[in-house]
Specification:
Distance between the termini: 24 Å
Number of domains: 1
CATH architecture: 3-Layer(aba) Sandwich
Number of helices: 10
Shape: globular
Mean pLDDT: 95
Structural class: alpha/beta
CATH topology: UDP-N-acetylmuramoyl-L-alanine:D-glutamate ligase
Order of helices and strands: EEEHEHEEEHHEHEEHHEEEHHH
Strand content: 15-25%
Helix content: 25-40%
CATH superfamily: Ribokinase
Radius of gyration: 18 Å
């Protein structure tokens, strides 16, 4: 029986350009392809969570524009229950994504739009929604004071809290103490701790510092090296899965976090939840796009049992 997951975050419309390289300042180059799709870390994680079998609700603000229509249709297809407000005096978020045609690696500029105005007051008006969840997930694309208030609200209610500290920023003191799980990638873990994170052992050292800063457990995603779960009583490296050739890595972290939350909400232990997240991420990178790349639970289960 799956518990409920509430995710706070941002939706952005992804405008994705594939090219051989980024242009220099003042230069125009021809790209290989263009796509318009649904993105934003919070929204992507909500889609991933719902696709992975989670009973998922998503909190954000949208404009009243065609990009908002894309958001609502995306959530409907995935089975996400939107807990959103729409505002005619602002715009729905948008992102410019460059994807290397050779490697699939990406570089992104995000404009959150009206979601930039998500405030502590907005969170307090929805305290019952957050407190009623089994798992609460958020990131750092909305203002950090709202993120903190949401984590505080969840913690006070006894809800399991997951912070994906992306994009990387300097966190206010005490933030990690509100997190049952913190899920940075290598770059974010290095930024939070000041330590290099290029190997599993370096990730373990950074994770230990994250625990010292208050996190209940640290889950550091390591790209092609899988993920490290590091808690108070165990530290386990979960290798990456292979689901086929890598097409695009843009949504991999969001696939991991959404699937992780779905597994935690249905009562899986943390290590199995990390394995489930790794399998979801492995499938997502074999497909173009972000929200469109998120796998269904049946696909994840097949990879895990292969």
């Amino acid at each position: 029986m799956s518990g409920t997951i509430v995710i706070l975050g941002v939706f952005v419309a992804d405008t994705t350009y594939r090219a051989d390289r980024l242009p220099n300042m003042g230069e125009t180059i021809l790209g290989k392809s263009f796509a318009l799709g649904a993105g934003g870390k919070g929204s992507n994680q909500a889609v991933a969570c719902a696709m992975a079998g989670g009973d998922t609700q998503f909190m954000t603000k949208l404009g009243v524009d065609p990009f908002a229509d894309i958001a609502i249709e995306t959530w409907k297809r995935a089975g996400v229950v939107p807990q959103v407000t729409q505002h005619a005096d602002g715009y729905t978020g948008a992102a410019s994504i460059y994807v290397s045609d050779e490697s699939g690696e990406n570089a992104i500029i995000v404009c959150p739009g009206v979601a930039r105005t998500i405030s502590p007051e907005y969170i307090e008006d929805r305290a019952d929604l957050i407190g009623g969840a089994d798992v609460f997930v958020t990131q750092l694309e909305q203002p950090v004071d709202a993120t903190l208030r949401a984590l505080e609200t969840a913690r006070q209610a006894g809800t399991t809290t997951v912070l994906n500290p992306a994009p990387a920023i300097d966190l206010p003191e005490g933030t990690l103490a509100l997190c049952d799980y913190v899920t940075p990638n290598e770059t974010e873990a290095s930024g939070l701790t000041g330590l290099p994170v290029t190997t599993v052992e370096e990730a373990r050292e950074a994770a230990e510092l994250l625990l010292a800063l208050g996190a209940g457990a640290a889950i550091i995603t390591l790209g092609e090296n899988g993920a490290l779960f590091h808690g108070a009583t165990q530290s386990v490296h979960v290798p990456a899965f292979s689901a086929g050739p890598v097409i695009e890595t843009t949504g991999a972290g969001d696939a991991f976090n959404g699937a992780l939350a779905a597994a935690l909400a249905r009562g899986e232990d943390p290590i199995e939840s990390v394995r489930f997240g790794c399998a979801a991420a492995a499938i997502s990178v074999t497909r173009p796009g972000t929200a469109a790349s998120m796998p269904a639970r049946e696909e994840i289960d097949r990879l895990l049992s292969a």
